[in-house]
Amino acid sequence: MWGAGTILGADLPRQINRGADDVAVNLLRYLGRGATLVSGPAGQPVLLAFAERRLFAVLVLTIRDGRIFKIEASVDPSAAERRRSGSVEF
Q1: Cα diameter, the chain
Q2: Which of 1, 29, 60, 71 is the most exposed place for a label (fewest CB within 10 A)?
Q3: What CATH code is carried by the domain that includes residue 41?
Q4: Does some domain include residue 89?
C-alpha cells in the first residue's frame, strides 16, 4: 500500500508515503474530522472529499485483488489552508 499527495498550484514536492499506517496518518491529516467522502461517477475508483459542501480533494484509488493498493490525492490549496487554520467548522 502506498499513497501520494499533491497540493495543486503549490511549489511543493509530491509527498509519497508507504505502508498502510503511514498512508492512513497522512490521509487523515488532510481529510480531518468532518469531511464528507462521496464515491466518484459511475462506480469509478474515485472519492471526492467535501468540507462545507465545497470540494477540496480528489482521491483516485488503484485496486488490486479487491484491495486498495494505491491512493493518489490532489488537494485544493485554498481549501486545504482553511482546514489547517481551523476556519472550517466540523
Answers
A1: 40
A2: 29
A3: 3.10.450
A4: no
